Every structure is written in C-alpha cells, then in structure tokens.
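Problem 12. The chain below contains 462 residues. Write out its predicted structure in token notation.
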Amino acid sequence: MAWYTDLRDTRLFSLAERDWTSRRLLDLRARLKSPLPDGIPRKTKDASIIIGTWNLRDFDNNKFRHGPRRRESLFYIAEILSAFDICALQEVNEDLGPLKDVMRLMGPGWDFIATDVTVGASGNRERMAFVYDKNKVRFRNIAGEIVLPKHALLPDEQQFARTPFMVSFQAGWFKFSLCTVHIYFGEDGKDTDGYKRRVKEIEYIAREMAGRAEREDENFILLGDFNIKNTVDETMGALTKAGFQLPPDLFPSNLLGTKYYDQIAFRTRKDEVTFLSAGVFNFSEAVFRPDHYDHYAPVLPARHRDLDSDGTPKDRGKDKDYYSKRWLTWQMSDHLPLWVELAIDFSDEHLLHNLEPEFEKSDVPAQVEYSEEAEPVSSPPEPAEPVGRKRRNRKRKAPKVAAREKVGTIAPAPHMTLGEAWRILCWVASGKADTFRRQRKNARKAEKAKAPGKAPPTRKQT
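Solution.
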C-alpha cells in the first residue's frame, strides 16, 4: 500500500480534495482486493511472486499539454504498483522526478532500476524501468540493454526503436531474469514497412532471450508493450514461435479493451516455476470514472476543449468524451496493468531430491561427526557401527511434507493458435473424430474382456 501522509499536508490538499482522494483510494483498494478476475491476488511472503507490466503513458513530461499528472494520480499509480512484487514500466520519460515521487509514496521498502533514455525520433527519449519490493525481491547485480548485432540489424541498419532492458532478480529460491520491451508500432497494414519492422523486433528479442534461456539454464520472462494487435496476429506468432509460453487466458490491455498490446511470456527451467493466475487490472472502474466528470470539468485544460466565452462546453457530450477517452489517459494511462502470479517455493522438491531409495527399506546409525580440531577429511565419515544387540532393519518413515500455500500448474498452457483451431475443426468435420472415439471405446471393451478373474459377458435370457 502507498503512504498517505501527504494527504494531511494542507499545502498540497485542501480538506475537500483530501476527502475526495481518500474516497477514491478506498474504492481503488477495494477493487484491488476483489476476487479474480477483477482484483489482484494478495501478496505472500515467499510462496508466490506477482509480476506486472504497465505502459504508463508519457510519464510524465506533459509534452502534449494534457496534464501534468495531478498529485492524486500519483497516489493511485503508487497504490496499484504496490499490489505487485515487481513491475516493468514503459514510457518513463527523461525527467525521473515524477517516478521518484511515486517511489516516495510507496515507502522505503521499494526501489527502482531504470535505463538511460533512448534517443531518436522513434525512441522519444523514453526510459524503461523496474520497480520492486526490496522485502521480497533482490537485485542480482546484472542489468543491461539489448542491442542488435550487425548481422541482425533491421532495414536501413536500424537498431530497436526503444532498447530492451534485461535485469536479473531473485525472490526466495526463484532466480529469474526479466526483459522488458516497448516494440516499435509503425502502421497497422501488414504490407507496410512499419508493421514489418514491428514483427522483426519481436522476432529478434524473443529468439535472443530463448537462446539465453537455453545457454544459461535460467528462467527468462519477456514482458512489456509488444504492440500486438490480437491473439492470432503475426505479431503474436513472432513471440510464441521462439518457444515462449503465455498464460492460458489472455487479456486485452488497452483502456478500450480491444487490443492485446501487452504480454508476459515465459521460458522457464523444467519443474521449477508453476503458474497460478494472470489478469489485467481495470483502474477506470475505481478512479476517473465517467460519473466523476463534473468534479474534474473545472480543471480540464481549455486548449483541448470547445468552450463558450463563459467557460462552459459547447457540446457537453463531446467534452465528456475528451475527459474519459483522452484526459484520463494522461492522468493514468491508455494501457491497463497486466500481471501474472507464479508459485516459487520449491524447497520441498529440493529436499525430496536428496532422498535415496536404497535407505527406504533399512535404517542405519547416525554418521559420526568430527570436531573442528580433527584432521580434515576428503569425504564425510561413514555411519557408526551398531553396538549391543544386532540392530534390526527398520523401514524409514516417509517424510511429512507440509501443505502448499499456493499450488499451480507446471507451466502455463500454450494459447491455441488460429491454425491449430482450424486443424481441429477439419478433423471433427471429416468424421475422423467419431471414428477415433469408436475405436477407443472398442479398445476399452476388449481390455475389460481380457481382464483376469472376470467371466465374459453373457446375454441375459428372456
């Protein structure tokens, strides 16, 4: 949760505005705590980790003069970010002052790591950053920006529009590397150079991270704003064909709920990470709602509105659209934060791996331990010899394993592609599915008839 002491400062908030902001924070907190799919799971100490990604639109230089963000907006952003253990941020601008203000509101237990700005027209002098809870996540002292080698340069020898940023972290037993991206958008038409560049950028970063996951035997998570149009678009295929897996359910991440721009994809070590849940958080259900228009109308920037001489809007409906579809996006964002929860406590598996089958049927005396004064030995000493009567072989009891606080699946199921769906449809329509079902049914009947101790079925006499 965010720190709320600034709300008591009368130089920053009037009594009326403190009341308004506090009510909105209560609404926001209630929605964050609501059951899935609307809310976000409660954070645990070490059983799971919640990883988020959020494109914070143009945070925060006000170059389009729709802002700057209000003080209350920073509270809302801090409240949402504190629901994650770690979150990747895109579109952080050159001035880190607003981000530092958010970090101060989140408290001293939080920290961030950011890139330098990406220069050039397509880079927009943006940064990418990770904010993380130091009580849960530890920086592993590895960070770097990913650049294209000469043989992989984009057309006209172009680099990434915005340099991907990779950082290594650890939470409990779980060691992982996050790589956040903000892929070039260009144009929507598939024959355009901009769209082709978008696909190429996704292809390269996915292939590069997949290769590193293989070489380093590391858990890699690729996340951020990929500018993916939909789940069956070529942009999505460029991500998944490198072997990255996605959560079984995918969520649109733009404010209108129509695009799948943001994604979180995995290449993880076998049997180490288990998937729990995923979702997207719609903050617009709690803050800057359409019915809040009258509260904010007096402070909306006049330069973007069509007003009469007395300051009232000529078209109230059009003015409300500006408030809810444009101004809101520069107060919060035009993207919704996407998140995934992973179970990361695999300490039981580590201990169970140490068990030796040969000792399950018999017991042996305890190993003799040497004191510090004894001469060093190259290997641990053997167990002591039994004394007195001959020791009976006793079966060692199976260890008791504590119940899991969080139980998930080994890996998120790959999302069905349009090609797979078409093949299944053709298989069913051709009648092969019915044939396969009959064959399987007959095989089961044959197995039952061959089962020992069972008489063959006889026809009932009438």
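Discussion. DSSP finds ten helices and eleven strands in the chain. Students who got a different answer should revisit the alignment rule from Section 12.3.
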